[in-house]
Amino acid sequence: MPPRGAIPGPEPTRISRRTLIRAAAGAAAAGLVHTRADALERPVERGALQVGLEDAPQEVGRLPSELGSRAPGEELRRVIYRNRLSGGSLSPIHRLEGRITPADLHFERHHGGIPDIDPERYELLIHGMVERPTVFRLADLKRFPAESRIHFVECSGNGNGVYRRSGIPRELTAQMIDGLLSTSEWTGVALGTLLREVGVRPEATWFLAEGADSAHLARSVPIEKAWDDAMIVYAQNGEAIRPEQGYPARLLLPGWEGNSQVKWIRRIELTDRPVMTREETSKYTDPLKDGTARQFSFVMDAKSIITFPSYPYVLPERGWWEIRGLAWTGRGRITGVEVSADGGRTWQAAELQEPVQLRATTVFRHLWRWEGGEALLMSRATDETGYVQPTLAQLVEARGAGSTYHANHVRAWKVESDGQVFFGLGEVS
Ligand SMILES: Nc1nc2c(c(=O)[nH]1)N[C@H]1C(S)=C(S)[C@@H](COP(=O)(O)O)O[C@H]1N2
Ligand SMILES: [Mo]
């Protein structure tokens, strides 16, 4: 068991670094692992690891089942943030391990509810500035060479609740702050493959992607993205994508804002200019200080958040704790994450979980000794373009206070002297 804080209520897990070292030394002494036990602490006696047969279960357990379930007490839930047709739900990122989001916990954002689409009758039309306008059925899409890739999807509104200098509640979970982020292994066909099939005319520079939901969500996308890494995906973490994620097929634009990744995709029209839909004019633009607005701000900038320790975890005792979190960037790969325990005065490099992949979340970890006083934990991500996750002050300086999207500033967690952890951005700004 790795060290883990406890949510108030159940018995706290008490594992010190000393215990971990002892356990490792004990296992080594018993010949279970090849560790240099002498470099650790005095090994415990061999007998300590011997387990009597009477400890083995005496009764046969449950029989196999067709469908698995989560262990009792390990059930996880999304948080629905607006219980209307135009709503969403947040993924429990503070309760997940590793980078992959279980498909039933992938965040949701839809503007007109989830349509029921019959996969037998599903059609994707590609037309406009093409040589051969074509309708693809689901079976057609699956006949093309398939690709599987791990990518995050993040709503560009993710984290906008903490894009403020004051008035932010302390009792916020990472789920509530940044839960409009999820990562899956997506499988589908490269959009470039389909475009070669229909023959794109040279004057086409953009394409319009339109969904089959009642919102008719539509976005204009520069054609370069299609030749680069855009996909039409029909599977997620090994099975058909969920209705919430766009069943039977969605547009995947790795690293770009969630809104542009049209679900339930039914039409792609090649054009020589952006169409200026609602979602790229009145919505999903970023008002700036000087009265203008950023438009087509597709790329999700580098960002990170510590998921442990975070609210509502409680550190039961001082000592060694592993700070853990997620970092991601739409610009390419994460190259570094730094962690601070003193509110940004000093920073140390965290370890990145290999392999660090393109436009995918990366887990970072940093061993930290909590001396028992107050601490302000922060993380700061850098990506391969040299872009560094900004502070709130830097972001407000660059964009003004009126933006509601792309709030990727450094987040902070306040550890109180009694071990309670709260959202702590107000301490920083
Ligand atoms: N057709 C359609 N596509 C859509 C949406 C929608 O409402 N309709 N919502 C968009 C938004 S705002 C986001 S953030 C992502 C969310 O993807 P997810 O629900 O699979 O997490 O889908 C995008 N694609
Ligand atoms: Mo979104």
Throw out a few tags for this protein.
about 425 residues, mainly beta, Sulfite Oxidase, Chain A, domain 2, five-stranded mixed β-sheet, five-stranded antiparallel β-sheet, about 10% helix, globular, binds the ligand Nc1nc2c(c(=O)[nH]1)N[C@H]1C(S)=C(S)[C@@H](COP(=O)(O)O)O[C@H]1N2, binds molybdenum atom
Helix and strand arrangement:
Elements lengths: L16 H13 L49 E2 L6 E4 L17 E3 L12 E6 L5 E4 H6 L3 E8 L19 H5 L2 E10 H8 L7 E6 L6 E5 H6 L2 E6 L2 E2 L9 E3 L12 E7 L14 E2 L5 E2 L8 E6 L10 E10 L5 E7 L7 E2 L1 E2 L9 E9 L4 E9 L8 H8 L12 E4 L5 E3 L6
Parallel strand pairs: 4-13
Antiparallel strand pairs: 1-2, 2-3, 4-5, 6-7, 7-10, 8-9, 8-13, 10-11, 10-12, 14-15, 16-17, 17-21, 18-19, 18-22, 20-21, 22-23, 23-24
The protein binds ligand MTE and molybdenum atom.
Structural account:
With 429 residues, this protein is mostly beta strands. The protein has a domain at 101-168 and 181-294: Sulfite Oxidase, Chain A, domain 2. The chain has helices at 17-29, 138-143, 174-178, 191-198, 223-228, 392-399; strands at 79-80, 87-90, 108-110, 123-128, 134-137, 147-154, 181-190, 206-211, 218-222, 231-236, 239-240, 250-252, 265-271, 286-287, 293-294, 303-308, 319-328, 334-340, 348-349, 351-352, 362-370, 375-383, 412-415, 421-423. The strands form six sheets. A five-stranded mixed β-sheet has the order 5-4-13-8-9. Strands 6, 7, 10, 11 and 12 form a five-stranded antiparallel β-sheet that branches. A hairpin with a 5-residue loop joins strand 23 and strand 24 (421-423). 38% of the residues are buried. The chain binds ligand MTE and molybdenum atom (MO). Molybdenum atom binds next to loops.
